[in-house]
Design goal:
The protein has about 70 residues and is mainly alpha-helical. It contains four helices and two strands, in the order H-H-E-H-H-E. The chain starts with a helix and ends with a strand.
Length: about 70
């Protein structure tokens, strides 16, 4: 009976390791996200701080569902 808890804990460990390896792939993070270059004016604001201040002022810009990878 003592071997059953060890096998369960090994199974859990292997399952968690498999899940982490899937999450570490680049595609897992980009799923459902749009590349930041496709955001148009918001991307221009990120590239040019003076343009952002001129158009939007000193307020913070929140960007959701954006992929910042090249």
């Amino acid at each position: 009976m003592s071997s059953t808890p060890k096998s369960i804990s090994r199974r859990r460990l292997l399952g968690k390791m498999a899940a982490l390896s899937l999450l570490s792939t680049p595609m897992a993070f980009a799923f459902g996200k749009k590349n930041i270059r496709n955001f148009g004016e918001i991307h221009d604001y990120l590239k040019d701080g003076y343009l952002r201040v001129e158009k939007a002022g000193e307020q913070r810009i929140t960007i959701k569902n954006a992929d910042f990878r090249s």
